[in-house]
Amino acid sequence: MAEAFALKRSVPVRHVFAIYWRSLAAQIRSVFEYPADLWVMASAGATWNLLQFAFLAVLFATVPDVAGWSFHEMLLLSGLLSVAGGANALFADGVWSTGSYVVRGEIDYRITRPAPVVVQVASSHLGLQSFGEILLGLAMFGYGWIGAGLGLAWLPVGALALVCASVIQCALVTALCAVNFWVKGPMSIFAFLMIDLQGQSMRLPLGIFPAAVRIVTLFVVPVAFVNFVPVAVLTGHLSAWWLIGTPLTAAASLALAAGVYRLGLRSYDSSGH
Amino acid sequence: MPILEARSLTKNFRRPDKASGFKGAVTHLMQRKYKNYTAVNGIDLSIEAGESVAYVGPNGAGKSTTVKLLTGILKPSEGTVRVMGRDPHAERIANAHDIGVLFGQRTQLWWDLPVEESLKLLKHMYGVSDADYRARIARFDALLDLGEFMPALARTLSLGQRMRADLACALIHDPKMVYLDEPTIGLDISVKDRLRAFLREMADDGTTLLLTSHDLADIEEVCERIVVIDKGAIAYDGPIRQLKAHYITTKTVHLFLEGPADVPVLAEKFPDYDWAAGEAPSEVVVTYESNRFTTAEVLGSLTSRLAPRDLSLSEPSIEDVIRRLYAGELTE
């Protein structure tokens, strides 16, 4: 524990953020030197979201609502989830490489530098699809917002939801990717499972699922706080009290991610002895 | 006080005893089985500021593991490390400002960024001032010719360029203690020469250096002290000169005779020396103990009685000594 405090004190938070932004900015600059890659990947991200939109549009052409949720309310769900996924790819895509960095011993240099390893790993790569995902996600969210008749008064809640969704998504993916410190392999299977769980259940109202799914997504892997809870509060499906859970989950997820990563580093034994 | 001090440094690794693939991983999660082995076994090492130390040993001897323990990448199973009085693992961030690390087998450059961007990111990470940064880059450029590939993406560099850029990365914050793990691996002669000259200058300037290499020319040209490690333990620690004086006790003359050499006959004629056939039929290799006979004596008697067409003298290299140390033929 003393170790953890010593680490925190010796790197000021502002310096950590500066390092993080510089690394991301350098990646973004280099991306714009190869615009073809950017367009292909961003279009892929956008297309994926258009498919989500089309799916909902077709669904709601045949049914008036799903478990009491309207087309526009479900657009809010989908849009927020897309923004969260895009935020992961934009701000912390590097964490997906944790497993391959571990097996190839590429954490070594990062340990010898004066910055938190998780920050260096998170900012080591940029998912180009994020630009399309975030743009289309925001478009869906905005369209749903207007269609659901949410006024300007709710905007602060909307902003909080967007920020918290991004933070929770990045943090949970980071924590699950850090499992690869112990389960050696380049594939972040547990993070993939979480994304799959979200894709299967979080674009639909949670009420249609059995209790087990609700318990898991609310309290075990709290992905429901990424999009479902804030949207349910915005649209009156849940009481406003639930909203407190969102920033709390964001803070808890961040602490979890940092803790798991730190524990993982402790059992890191490099490669090539 | 030594800049680096390791006491009874030991590292045991657990290797998972598991089947391959995802299924193996899942089974391993349920039923954990491990095998233990010791990579570094009770090493004591003390390095004074300004020393340049070569750390050599055969493959798998524990060199890289030692470097990782000394740099704080790995936590020792037993024993302690102190670098400038700090535990490099527990006080990793503070330690990072004082050390520079190069692993020749890997790069620390950002793969998709120009070299210059990597250096700038490190500059900010270490908090190097603009003036210091410019001065250091100018110096690296003069000695390592960085300029030609500063704007190139790391992934497009040749191995020699990559290594020079990595060396600049390792030294951009002017560290007091520098670890170089195989800095010349895979490089051609001219790049090696340039790198060695640079390292020699660094050592002369008073930077403390720990260098591992399989190329003993690196070691002889850059370092004064050599630590030989084998099977995780230190086999020799002392000045390179002394290692030579201690173990190099014989010299060799290659004689090229007019006709084919008859080794048994020659051995009978000169029983004080060891005789062996050379590569050519007319070549013969004579080995004598340098503390019993002077070279002039040996050459005098050989040339007067055999009248060779040509001859050449050779001294066992440090390489031979190390090879014999590895083979366990020599003990301290």
Number of DSSP E strands of chain A: 0
How far do the termini of chain B sit from each other?
A: 26 Å
- Kindly report the CATH topology of the largest domain in chain B: Rossmann fold
Helix segment count of chain B?
12
Q: What's the number of extended β-strand segments of chain B?
A: 13
What is the CATH C level class of the largest domain in chain B, in words?
Alpha Beta
Specify the CATH architecture of the largest domain in chain B.
Answer: 3-Layer(aba) Sandwich
Low-confidence regions of chain A: 1-9
Terminal Cα span of chain A: 29 Å
Estimated radius of gyration of chain B = 25 Å
Residues in β-strands, percent of chain A: under 5%
Query: What is the residue-mean pLDDT of chain A, rounded to a whole number?
Result: 91
Q: Helix-strand pattern of chain B, N to C?
A: EHEEHEHEHHHEHEHEEHEHEEHEH
Tell me the count of domains of chain B.
2
Strand order of the largest sheet of chain B: 5-6-7-3-8-9
Verbal overview:
- The complex is a heterodimer of chains A (273) and B (332).
- Chain A is built from 13 helices and no strands.
- By secondary structure, chain A is mostly helical.
- Chain A has one domain (2-266).
- In chain A, helix 3 (35-62) runs parallel beside helix 8 (129-147).
- The longest helix of chain A is centred in the N-terminal third of the chain and has 28 residues, at 35-62.
- Chain A is globular, with a radius of gyration of 19 Å.
- Mean pLDDT of chain A is 91; it is low at 1-9.
- A 6-stranded mixed sheet of chain B has the order 5-6-7-3-8-9, with helices on both faces.
- With 332 residues, chain B is of the alpha/beta class.
